[in-house]
Each structure stands twice: as structure tokens, then as C-alpha cells.
Amino acid sequence: MNIPFTAVQFYGVFTAYNTAVWPMQLPLLALGVLAVVLLVRQRSYSSVGMAAILALLMIFVGQRVASHILRRIALTRVDQTT
User: pTM of the full predicted structure?
Assistant: First the structure.
């Protein structure tokens, strides 16, 4: 079975993704650190804070998954017309 892309194209996908989400990586890292702090230091607001952080992360990941699915559909349509 032949792979329909080169190694350069494959790694180019990662480069493009990392370039596209670069500004968001710092706030996401900060949210992760905050989640660990809330987990270690049990306060009255810790569970609400953890739920909010998890909701934000789920929204971010869901948006990325939806974007991937929409791109895949677009590529499949283009492939079928050729």
C-alpha cells in the first residue's frame, strides 16, 4: 500500500497546526497548572473552578475535532470530483 503523501507533507500538517494554535498554548498551559493547583489545594471553590477549566478545555478540543472533521469532509469531496 502506497501512502498518498510524503513525509514532508505529513510533518507540514503538524507545523501548520502548531503555528495556528501557538498563541493558545500558553493560556492552555496556565489553565492546566491552575487545575493542578485547585486539585492540590482543596478550597470551597475548587470544584467549581475545576469544572470551569474542564469545560473550557472540552470546548477547545471539541472545536479542534470539529475543524478536523470539516476539513476531512472537504478533502473527501475534492478527492471525489477528481
Answer: 0.61
